[in-house]
Amino acid sequence: MTVQDQIDQYIAGQPPSKRDELGALNRIILGVSPGCELWFLDGRNDQGKAVSNPNIGYGSQLIQYVNGESRAFYRVGLSANTSGISIYVMGVADKTFLARTYGERLGKAKITGYCIKVKSIKDLDLDVLEELFANHLREDATGTTPVPIA
User: What are 55-99's pLDDT values in tens digits?
Assistant: First the structure.
């Protein structure tokens, strides 16, 4: 099964409202970055145990861990959760950046250092969200510059 097939299956398996909203977010992201690398993580660890919600990823970056190891990972992610949808913006070194840059304009959302949690995308200004996706997925933001992760 291809990554695109996994993404399509994940979105299709959601309840109708989340399916529609994940589909809309997927279209927005692919609209601003049509050639980005796609990821699908099923939420299971190496032993097959569920450790997180499944998530869709877009773009690529090199994450550098403090122990010297590194790995490729997505730049933007989407995941359905029990209360709505989580949007992950990975590789942001300044943990106040998202809230300072987009918080007041984005709409009703809980914003942490790298995650935007919403009950519904109807509560968001989708133009601002599209701006965030475009800025974070643009060509010069997707290189292999290590992003330190503690």
Answer: 999 999 988 888 888 889 999 999 999 999 999 999 888 899 999
C-alpha–C-alpha distance, residues 14 and 21, integer Å = 10
Number of Cα atoms under 13 Å in the Cβ half of residue 96: 1
d(CA 59, CA 73): 8
Q: In 3-state terms, what secondary structure has residue 49?
A: coil
Q: pLDDT tens across 84-142, in order? A: 999 999 988 889 999 999 999 999 999 999 999 999 999 999 999 999 999 999 754 43
Torsion sign, CA atoms 69, 71, 74, 75: positive
Total Cβ atoms within 10 A of residue 118: 22
Spatial CB neighbours of 34, under 8 Å, sequence gap ≥ 6: none
Confidence (pTM): 0.88
